[in-house]
Write a structure and sequence with these properties.
The protein has about 110 residues and is mostly helical. It is built from four helices and no strands. The longest helix has 22 residues, at about 55-75. The relative contact order is 0.17.
């Protein structure tokens, strides 16, 4: 169950990062409130998952999901550039996430 909660926390991190971008530096009220709400929910799920997962594993997986998710949303929704070096960097992050999951004690 901890891994499911951690995955949900990571997906919420992607959502709050996107909402933060839409808030234009917290100058737009609704996206700013969505950002803060999603941040709280993401942190709460991360905290619960850390009850049984090691700190390093949980935190790295959470930030990795957020990083890769934000990278993909940036490309797919915001039209951010794609090039070979960015793809390789993203693949290295995914590889690290897989290694953390495989090596996890619990």
């Amino acid at each position: 169950m901890a891994w499911i909660l951690l995955a949900a926390a990571g997906l919420l991190e992607v959502a709050w990062a996107f909402a933060m971008k839409q808030s234009h530096g917290f100058t737009r009220l609704v996206p700013s409130l969505v950002t803060i709400t999603l941040m709280i929910a993401s942190f709460a799920l991360l905290a619960v998952s850390m009850k049984s997962l090691p700190l390093g594993t949980a935190y790295v997986v959470w930030t990795g999901i957020g990083a890769i998710g934000a990278f993909l949303i940036g490309i797919a929704v915001l039209g951010e550039p794609v090039n070979a070096l960015r793809i390789v960097a993203a693949l290295l992050i995914v590889g690290g996430l897989v290694m953390m999951k495989v090596s996890a004690v619990t």
